[in-house]
Amino acid sequence: MATTTDTAEPTAGTPDRGFLTPSRFPYRTIAMGTVGSTLLMLAALGAGGILIRDPVLGHGPLSWIRYGHGRALANALLYTGFALVVWAWVRLGRYALAGRIGSRPILIAALCWMAPLLVSPPLFTRDVFSYLAQGAQLLYGLDPYANGPAELSVLPDVVQNVHPLWQTTPAPYGPLFLLISKGIVSITQDDMIAGVVLTRVVLLVGLGMTLWALPRLVARLGGKLPVALWVAVASPMMVIHLFGGPHNDLMMLGFLAIGVLAALERRHVIAVVLVTVGMLIKPTAAVALPFLVWMWAADLPGPSKARNFLKAGAASVGLFLGVFVAGTWISLGSLNLGWWSGLSAPQLIANWLNFPTGIGEAVYTLIHLVANVPPSPFVTIARAIAMVGLVAFGIRQWWLSRNGGKEAVYRAAITLLAVAILMPPTLPWYLTWGFVLISAFPWERRNLSAVVAVSVFVTLVYYPTGEQALYDWTFIAVVVVASLYAAASLLRPDPLGLISAWRKPREEFLPEPAPTGRG
């Protein structure tokens, strides 16, 4: 008979019968993750992306959580909450893989874990403060593509909370997202807490679009909906980074997911329009557009593939230009193309999480042992080589997708992942670009364990304040161990027997039988 609560985890060396028993609803697992996200929310008041001038804590009796031992306690609580969320997520993944639960419990779990973070300070990033500042620039007549937030003379709380690196750099985001940020700031003005909360509420539109598209993508691409939801929606990258951050990638992914679905359903005009709108939020969505051309061409009648490609290509370019020009004009009031120059701003971030940057830094470190040379040429050359390789890889994937259909979607997804890894910078939440699409395909269990390792690792390599932790090697070693343990836990509960070591057989706690004779 199906149970209504979680079955206890099997101990090492015992048959996994309880794990294979169907369960209608994993209450304890969902509750565990909800407690964890609540701890994340509370601890973020002292350890997250806190405000320069905090109207809630300020210098009152609770301000101790932001300093000294109070902050150390906040960090401890935050990482405890993170561990609970990951533990719950891994347990949920085991249930999904074993067929114990369907998609509904996973969706409810993800929403329960996101709910406390709606009112949390930003987690592992301060980007949302830049969003608000750039929206304020547009609201008060400054060009975000020509000026940094430091030029804004009004809304001082908005400006002072922008990270110093981005105070003087132009916006790298699409004009439609700046229009959205402008609308948010027009309501919240200098109230940073309201601005962050309202940004999350608005970005929920992207989450809703993704949730609407994902079951239909799974039906077309052959995956399993519980697994797809577990990878794309309930993972720490989505819950903690995209929503807890929050990041505008969440809205871009909604347009991308529905656009790709429309292409699979042969509604190609809608597909190109939606993905172009996604590009007007964050330019990354443009990577998928060339793959949509092949999908359109494959669905056209006629024996000539070349002619079909030209027809689909011409129609796609026409639609793209129309939507691009109209979206830019509506958002900015003019055909301002300055946002293309803003795309270079994120390249100021240099750390080894970006693979070519890491190679350049490693080569520099070796040469620096014998010669005093600057590091920048090595990073620049490594990035240039990686860009050439990325272009070649992207062109090859595009050519391999010429038959359209599922193959084109898969090639687009892995190209998005390649862009996230090889194009500077690589930021943890960038990996969601490809994961949302690829989650709808069939998965092998061992590959899902790699997803767990990557998800935990990339979430932890930044401190909760948004500053990178990548060169704190002791901390990174701990992160690697935690990531590998989480990955192994998906394949086998309690892989090192750490939990079962604390459990004693029940017989040990039974009273000893009374002696039967005098001896």
UniProtKB/TrEMBL annotation:
Keywords: Glycosyltransferase, Membrane, Transferase, Transmembrane, Transmembrane helix. The chain crosses the membrane at residues 30-52, 72-93, 105-124, 192-213, 225-244, 250-265, 272-297, 317-340, 352-371, 377-396, 408-427, 447-463, 470-488. One of its GO terms (molecular function) is glycosyltransferase activity. InterPro entries: MptA/B-like. Residues 1-16 have a biased composition (Low complexity). It is a multi-pass membrane protein. This is Alpha-1,6-mannosyltransferase. Belongs to the MptA/B family. Its main location: membrane. The keyword Glycosyltransferase applies. It comes from Amycolatopsis sulphurea. GO terms for cellular component: membrane. Residues 1-20 are annotated as: Disordered. Coiled coil: none annotated. It holds the Pfam family MptA_B_family. It is found in: Membrane.
